[in-house]
């Protein structure tokens, strides 16, 4: 491990012990994580004794599901679910990758993150219950986008009201409910408001928290630490690809000189 990775590992261990970190996250969807990056994240999660969540690229993203199985993800999230049929397609795909026994150890979630998905929430929830999925993640940023609103609007009451509608539905059906999208230290009052209705966990791009963290004064600091982890992650990623891009520069220059010399 390099210096940045050691710092990330220390941060994750402290996050688990102090700030309620439960998982690290990777996305094949909007993040577009590459295999070599994923393997580094898996090692960090393993050493920090944290679970791994993977958000796949779609309800039928078979290759993503196979990779999630390969690296031992404990939780898989299917994005942009807008109908009960999309839930069925996700279940069919997961059943092709995981055996019934393996499924019993998995947490399968779907993402509601558009107004269309919100309007179909009851039909979607019925299908989730029927096929024993774990629950729903509400994605605030894309939800705002589907309403023509911006990322800055994620904490507005009209968004929180709709989140609570889905939360109440999950509670009634004994499903888990999580919130993501634009989660930072400024989101804590809104998250506490949601948790007063029903909430199991909340998530940033790279880190997931147990809802119990919201009950004490370290909640905001925990989200700052999650942002610091992502910052370190991106710095390490940039350094890694800079090294790759630079490793053949000397040979490139030598070949260019050779061609110019022979062509002269």
UniProtKB/TrEMBL annotation:
Checking Pfam families in the record gives: HpcH_HpaI
Name the keywords, alphabetized: Metal-binding
The family database entries (InterPro entries) matched by this protein are listed as: Aldolase/citrate-lyase_domain, Pyrv/PenolPyrv_kinase-like_dom, Pyrv_kinase-like_dom_sf
Q: Where is the HpcH/HpaI aldolase/citrate lyase domain?
A: 62-176
Ranges that cross the membrane: none
GO terms, molecular function: catalytic activity; metal ion binding
Question: What protein am I looking at?
Answer: HpcH/HpaI aldolase/citrate lyase domain-containing protein
Q: Give the organism, scientific name.
A: Candidatus Odyssella acanthamoebae
